[in-house]
Amino acid sequence: MAQRTVLVVLFDGVQSLDVTGPVEVFAGAEQHTPGTYRVHTASLDGAAVRTSSGLTLVPDGTLADAPGPHTLLVPGGQGTRRPDPRLTDWLRTNASRAERLVSVCTGAILLAEAGLLDGRRATTHWAYCATLARDHPAVEVDAEPIYVRDGHVSTSAGVTSGIDLALALVEEDLGREVALTVARHLVVFLRRPGNQAQFSAQLAAQTAQREPLRAVQQWITEHPADDLTVESLAARARLSPRHFARAFRAETGTTPGRYVDRVRLEHARRLLEDTGDGVEEISRASGYGTPEAMRRAFVKALGAGPAEYRRRFRPLTH
């Protein structure tokens, strides 16, 4: 098996965890299976860079002298807000050398600036998705998933999602057992599915301004197995169903039904990850009623049924 070179681009204002998270994954895989990965870091002039948190990273050399990469990894950080034109020029000219192009967080902005995401589906940190879509209309921006893979180009959301994506790439290259071993060492999930939402149902929706609606949001979160029809929730808010549905959407940015779906999915995921309860018990506790109803919801949202989700994404601390 040929060794894969992972070239990590460094620049002033880079987010340190965007760099170190994926690097630890690839380095861990190399330790487990020697000869599989060579991680090389480089900046434009080979000088040390100062990260957004104040840490200093010393690269292995210059981008001009860097070895030809199998995987070119572009992290994000504050330095992507006003990128050095020399860096985007280098990416535009040299990215085609890589068999695999990867960005973490706002590294997607650098790829977009270089024209490398035109016509592709991509994501970035949720706070910058609107900016990416506005400034680069040729990019199909998806703000929901933690990472997106479109051909040989992979983009991930904020910070720790770079670890998820790196684990997925290791699993693709070396198999599940190696990725599992690396994940255990890092005390993380084997990997979250790429289409898992970037944030929870409670964070994805806005908090309602009016007290009756805020109270209903909290009730949904605490009682996912209860009757959560629009009629029942409207009665709790002391509003007509039509008025409630209209007000809920206006204040939270989502419909009551979609909010309930997200809460139930999140509740079921946590039970699968954190408990040994059976699927039938979890389906009742999460408001699905039957295992089949929960399975359909999981497949639609996550691309995997509950049993498969538990097998692949359970915590790996033991």
UniProtKB/TrEMBL annotation:
Chain ranges of the HTH araC/xylS-type domain: 214-312
Signal peptide residue numbers: none
Database matches in InterPro entries: Class_I_gatase-like, DJ-1/PfpI, Homeodomain-like_sf, HTH_AraC, INH-QAR
GO MF annotations, alphabetized: DNA-binding transcription factor activity; sequence-specific DNA binding
Record keywords: Transcription, Transcription regulation
PANTHER family (alphabetical): ARAC-FAMILY TRANSCRIPTIONAL REGULATOR (PTHR43130), HTH-TYPE TRANSCRIPTIONAL REGULATOR RV1931C (PTHR43130:SF3)
Protein name as catalogued: Transcriptional regulator
